[in-house]
Structures are given as C-alpha cells and as structure tokens.
Specification:
alpha+beta; five-stranded antiparallel beta sheet; globular; 2 domains; 318 residues; Beta-lactamase; 11 helices; two-stranded antiparallel ribbon
Length: 318
C-alpha cells in the first residue's frame, strides 16, 4: 500500500509538470484527460473492493504509456496464463536456432495429464506433434499435456531465466500442469499484474528476443478466438491476443487489445475467490478499459471525434 501511495504521488506530480509545460488552451484539455484517467482508476479500485477475494489489475495505454494499476505488484497464482511466458521462450529458442518449431515429439502415455485439452486422449506413441502444433494446442485449447511436453523441451529454468533477463523476476514457471501435490506445497506458477502487463506491452511493440515476423506469428496464435470473460465486452472485429487461466479459487487473464486508434493492455488476477467472481472481475475490468480507450480513440486534442485513421495521418496523438 505504501508503494502504491508513493506511485500516486509521483504520478500526480508528473501530471502537474506536464500540464504546466503545455500552452494554456491545451492545458485545459490535458486536465480533462486527467479527469477521464482518474475515473478509470476509481473504477478499477471499485471493482477490486467489490470482488470477493483479492484482485490485482494493470491497464496500459500503448499510445501514451500511461499505466493504471490496483494491487498490481502483488504476486498471484496464474493457472494457464503462465503459458504465455512459455510460448515466448519457445519462440526465443527457435530464433536462436536451439530448436525448430517443426521438430516433432511423440505423445507418450507417461506425459498425458487431465484437465483441458485433447492430447490426453491420444494413443501411447501413436502421434507425432510439432512444437508449433503443441503451441497452438497449448494456447487455443489450453491443452495441459501439450504444455507439459513443451516445458520438457524448452526447460522450466530457461523460461524463468528469460523472464528475469527481460526484467520480470516475479513471473515464475515452477511446476508442470496438473500437479496438485506441488500446489499444496506452495510450488505455484506465479506473476504480478504489473510484470504480466509489461510483457504484453513488449509483445505489442515486438520488443522480444525474436524477429518481427515471429512476433506477429506469436501474437496471431494468441488472437485465435477463445471463449472467456476478457473479450466478451469487446466488439467483434477488434483483435484480442489473450490467455485466461484458472485453478480452484483463482482466475486470471492477460490481454492485448488492438482497438483501432488506441490499443491497450489489460491484465486481471484474482485469488481467494471463486470462478464466477473472478470471471465477473475480469469482465468488468475489460469493459471499463474498453470504455476509457474508446473515448480516447479518434479524439482530437480538444476531445472532438474524428476518424482514428485521419489522426494517424495528420498528427501524433498524446
């Protein structure tokens, strides 16, 4: 709480300095934008207060870099959302030539686990799946057997070392999927909302240790439509690169929303709760973020509305 208070104070000081440096007509509009931003912060705080259990969230404006967080430095269990860092490491190793995404692995009975997915039903040793195909299964169907096969191939330590090198020491892959004994011992896959949102922001900017082409491919995998609370408020046709996660008492979602004129990141994590409450928190946070950024998309410096494409052509937006 002290850290959050310090961040609010610094944020207010930065806003004040920014306002003072603007011409007087634009200064008033910056003040109005600050009012809109304060409303989003208030809404996130209200959702966190009203959600049974504990909620952490981070929303990032990819145009201005402004961040909106609540309990965003707390560490939460991740469920299947931890599969995004694993996907990043898979592509980083492919870029480095350590593996090929076309490499095929046999499906062995000893590696098959329950939960979501279809690979658990494959015959012992009868199927060979490429690393690329396993990645698709892991993200789209949240296939736990495919995930464990990829963990075995790229290595847990490699995922954690990569996250630490990128500046995210609290994103940790510490167990394979469907390991209740490990969970009971506290050996959990974890992250903070702030670090997860920062990683998604890197994906949006293609600032990851692989080429722009691989970055686009990775993002396209995450954009394959999936049911869940984060994309529910978002209009059809707006691309959403995201991954949900859940275990008993926990619900998470990491998302990158390609809203025309104002793309953004939204990450929500809930624990000590239940599935319905976590889904509601994710859905409400997604809706609040969409409303805020929809107001900014296509807005001139004075808050009038024009085509976002026109703004892109004539002037950079704040």
């Amino acid at each position: 709480m002290k850290a959050q208070r310090i961040r609010r104070i610094w944020g207010a000081a930065l806003v004040a300095m920014t306002l003072a440096s603007l011409p007087l007509p634009l200064r008033a509009q910056a003040a109005q934008r600050a009012i809109l931003a304060a409303r989003l912060r208030d809404e996130l705080a209200a959702i966190a207060r009203e959600t049974p259990g504990v909620m952490g969230a981070e929303v990032v404006d990819l145009t201005s870099g402004e961040r909106f967080g609540v309990n965003d430095t707390l560490v939460f269990p991740q469920g299947s959302a931890i599969k995004i860092p694993l996907l990043v490491e898979l592509y980083a190793q492919a870029e480095a030539g350590r593996i090929s995404l076309e490499e095929r692995l046999p499906v062995r009975r000893a590696e098959q686990v329950g939960g979501s997915g279809v690979v658990q039903g494959f015959g012992d040793g009868t199927s060979l799946l490429s690393l690329h195909d396993l990645a698709i299964l892991m993200i789209v169907l949240s296939d736990n057997t495919a995930t464990n096969m990829l963990i075995g191939r790229v290595g847990m330590d490699a995922v954690n070392a990569r996250m630490a090198a990128l500046g995210y020491p609290h994103i940790l892959l510490r167990r394979r999927m469907i390991r209740p004994e490990d969970m009971a011992l506290g050996n959990e896959n974890v992250a903070t909302a702030a670090e997860a949102a920062a990683l998604m922001g890197r994906l949006a900017r293609c600032e990851l240790p692989f080429s722009a082409a691989r970055c686009r491919e990775l993002r396209s995998i995450l954009e394959i439509p999936k049911e869940g609370p984060l994309p529910q408020p978002i209009p059809a046709g707006v691309p959403v690169a995201w991954k949900p996660g859940s275990v008993e008492g926990v619900g998470t979602a990491w998302g990158l929303v390609g809203l025309p004129g104002r793309p953004y990141v939204v990450v929500v994590m809930v624990n000590y709760s239940d599935g319905a409450a976590a889904d509601a928190a994710i859905r409400r946070t997604s809706a609040a973020a969409l409303l805020y950024f929809s107001r900014l998309a296509g807005a001139t410096p004075f808050g009038a509305r024009v085509s976002p494409a026109l703004l892109d052509r004539v002037t950079p937006r704040p």
